[in-house]
Amino acid sequence: MSLRFDSFVLAASTADLADEPAARDHADAIEFRMDLADDPLAALEAYDGDLPILATNRAAWEGGEWAGTDEDRLETLAEATALAGVDAIDVELASILEGGAEGLLETARDRDVSIVASAHDFEGTPPRTELVRTLTEAGKYADVAKLAVTAESTADTLALLSATEQLTAHGDAVATMAMGEVGSHTRAVAPVYGSKIGYAPVDPAEATAPGQYDLETLAELVGRLE
Ligand SMILES: O=C1C[C@@](O)(C(=O)O)C[C@@H](O)[C@@H]1O
């Protein structure tokens, strides 16, 4: 397993693993959005790229496009953990707290696949104390606690960066980003405060969240601020 997240990982987000060669120059990993792909398990089985894969199978209720049941969604993700190239999975914190992901987490750990527990707020940015609480909760179950919020003001972005700094200083591995235009710069800056994962599409037309930079731009910005 090569995705330990002990240093910053730039993930190229895509629904098409054929993008991997184009991502290789700038990315450390591929975030494969299984929910956006036609036959994700077949694509993973055929994968022969160099970059390790963080597999995400995002629920519709968390901003994704998985069309089936939650049970099938998590089962499909569990099947992905057996495939070569899959080094990490993203599991929604809400699924974990509901109790539906226990088997998946156990399977991932048995197979030495890293776990990212994620939470998203597409409406706004909760108060700083709540950001800290969510990240702390997610960190109990995962190798990385990830939180994406929607920033409506620069005060929101500061709250997110401050929470990122606090958790990192405490020794926790977190990944944070503010979605939306106001939040874009956090994608470049959050790694300075300890954020361990950044996401960017190879093709800017295929962004997987509002306010993302294209891969080459984010690689350049993060590299310069390092
Ligand atoms: O959860 C995340 C973070 C993200 O939403 C972002 O804001 O960059 C992009 C998604 O592809 C990924 O699964």
Automatic annotation (TrEMBL):
GO terms for molecular function: 3-dehydroquinate dehydratase activity. The active site is at H120, K146. Its EC number is 4.2.1.10. It comes from the Archaea. Keywords: Amino-acid biosynthesis, Aromatic amino acid biosynthesis, Lyase, Schiff base. GO terms for biological process: 3,4-dihydroxybenzoate biosynthetic process; amino acid biosynthetic process; aromatic amino acid family biosynthetic process; chorismate biosynthetic process. Homodimer. This is 3-dehydroquinate dehydratase. It comes from Natrinema thermotolerans.
